[in-house]
Amino acid sequence: MRVLGMISGTSHDGIDVALVDFDPAYDGGTLSGVVELTAATPYPDRLRARLMNALPPAATTLAEVCALDTLIGQSFAGAAAEAIGRAGPVDLVVSHGQTVFHWVEGAHALGTLQIGQPAWIAERTGTPVLSDLRSRDVAAGGQGAPLVCLLDVLLLAGHRGTAAALNLGGIANLTVVRGPGDVAAYDIGPANALIDAVVVNRGLNERGFDEDGRVAASGTVDEGLLAVLLDHPYYRLPLPKSTGKELFHLGHVEEAMARAGARPGSADLVATLTELTVRTVVREVAASGAGLLVVSGGGCRNPVLMDGLRRALPGVTVRLSDAYGAPADGKEAIAFALIGWHTAHGLPGSVPAGTGARAARVLGTVTPGAAPLVLPSPAREAPRALTLTPRRHGPEAGTRGTGRHGGSVGGRHGPG
């Protein structure tokens, strides 16, 4: 079964896609998948600016939410059509969309909103679309995050001892796997969110992020400001917990500077915020007892951040998720493709030990494609492990094996 996973993360800079061909002969135990394609499509500059201007703590209107829902849905549709054009038809598109608000009060998630109308994807590609992946977990008492822990648990299933998976997106999230059924997953705090906010606000470059950590490398950490940032009560909340840019935005930085009585220059401020990510991550990884840390997300391309983690965790083996078959830049999109495979086969896609839900739930809402919706036969048991391998041929390899994919969801349709 060929599934296209799509997400725009908390850095809201574009759309990551991953096409995974899951073994149609799966019959329990280990699920295997071939990663046919990973790619990224940047948002148009005007759309990204419009989205950023509508995100918390800014005020917005329902009219603007409606417009963004359409425009982002059309961008996702374009990215899906491009991926299908490159790698061949798929059985299911899984669209996480763009998170615009994650409603958390205290230790409880009460709601979550992802936009990017899936009907545009279904209309453009003719393929069924699974969307609204987080709401069911929230309704079941969970945080709705981090859903990537399903992928983490299966990829790390064969590791002896405690292992952890770290995603450094806008927000840093961690999955700790100590053994079968012994899992913890949660949002640590900001990874790139605050750094990006300062880079954009101060016009430090046109990319909107600290490319290669150059700004941080040129600055000095302000220890007084760092102490104030580290003292935020979010870091002391019990698990499970989740957060987003509703909390960690530019106003958070401004408030901390006012409390610290500090106004560092741009390079020093970015260096301090980068060190904030290092310190908060190191504290959690060290407390977990993990001997292996598998890292993904945009932050893993920041050498200042990665060098800081390695220096502070000398007894921990630090690897990129590429070593486990999941390219670091596309891992979250792969995770949502995996969740889509689970939903299509009637299997829960959430991990209650990670999200805090009362029980695991089948996730998402389906928008039919051009053909009648036909679901695969339910799987007899959920996978206990996952192996991923890269595609073996060129970009057109996604068309291989036409006709052998069992259990399609409403058939496969190319762009149209």
% residues in beta strands: 15-25%
SSE-based structural type: alpha/beta
What does the average pLDDT come to?
92
> What low-confidence regions span 5 or more consecutive residues with pLDDT below 50?
394-408, 411-416
Could you state the oligomeric state of the chains shown? single chain
Please state the overall shape, judged from the principal axes of the Cα atoms: globular
Main pleated sheet? 8 strands, mixed
Kindly, what is the distance between the CA atoms of the first and last residues, rounded to a whole number of angstroms? Answer: 21 Å
Total helices: the number is 13
Helical fraction: 25-40%
Number of strands: 13
Order of helices and strands: EEEHHEEHEHHEEEHHHHHEHEHHEE
Instruction: Return Rg in Å.
Output: 20 Å
Task: Give an overview in words.
It is a single chain. The protein has 416 residues and is of the alpha/beta class. The chain has helices spanning 45-54, 62-87, 118-125, 135-139, 149-155, 193-201, 214-217, 223-230, 250-260, 266-288, 303-312, 331-344, 352-355; strands at residues 2-8, 14-22, 30-42, 92-105, 108-115, 129-131, 163-168, 171-179, 182-190, 292-296, 317-320, 365-367, 385-390. Helix 10 (266-288) packs parallel to helix 11 (303-312). The chain is globular and about 60 Å long. The model is unreliable at 394-408 and 411-416 (pLDDT under 50).
Task: Write the SSE topology.
Layout: E1 2-8, E2 14-22, E3 30-42, H1 45-54, H2 62-87, E4 92-105, E5 108-115, H3 118-125, E6 129-131, H4 135-139, H5 149-155, E7 163-168, E8 171-179, E9 182-190, H6 193-201, H7 214-217, H8 223-230, H9 250-260, H10 266-288, E10 292-296, H11 303-312, E11 317-320, H12 331-344, H13 352-355, E12 365-367, E13 385-390
Parallel strand pairs: 1-4, 3-13, 4-6, 7-10, 10-11
Antiparallel strand pairs: 1-2, 2-3, 4-5, 6-12, 7-8, 8-9
Helix pairs in contact: 1-2, 2-3, 5-12, 6-10, 8-9, 8-10, 10-11
